[in-house]
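For consistency, the fold was encoded as tokens, which produced the following:
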Amino acid sequence: MPEPLKHTPWEVLTILAGTLIVVQGFETPRYLGDEFDSDTRIKASRWSQIISTVVYLAFVALALPLTHLLQGSYDDNSLIELTKFASPLLVTPLIIAAAMSQFSAAVADTMSATGNMEEMTNHHLKEKFGYLLVGGGAISLTWSASTLEILALASRAFAFYYLLQCFVAFTVSKSPVQKAGIVVLSVVLAFITVFAVPAG
């Protein structure tokens, strides 16, 4: 058995905060107002979150018993190594699924970022130039940081973005209970924004 990792509770929390981006990414329907009505977009966001939550929880439950086989060494390809322990036949389908998943996520996030820039500039920034800026920034970031560093940075950026959304939600909400929940969520997001660190 591998030795227990020597992390303090604070270190565990900050590392966990650096993985926020792993379980987000359902804001894309927000920018499809020209194609779909609000009810459809709300349902799309809600169902995507429900389905993905079930998938994530099922994966963690199934993968956790095998993590000791990694001997405490975690890298970019640890998931593939973990899958190999379960069954070598799963490796190729996993790689294909991961590549397709990341491609769709990249498209979705590019659309979201471009949509944000269009909104902020009152549509003065043309869509094609928005895509160019986002793509150029993504390429530069990929060449300048490791995967885990990018993950933590993205988690902090998304946390800050959602923190701003919480401020908006707080100002328009009329329910004291809802406002209390928004405050709690804001504190969590503020913690992630300031203290999230890479897992590696």
About this structure: Helices lie at 9-17, 38-63, 78-86, 91-120, 127-144, 147-172, 176-195. The chain is about 70% helix and 0% strand. The mean pLDDT is 80. Residues 91-120 form the longest helix (30 residues).
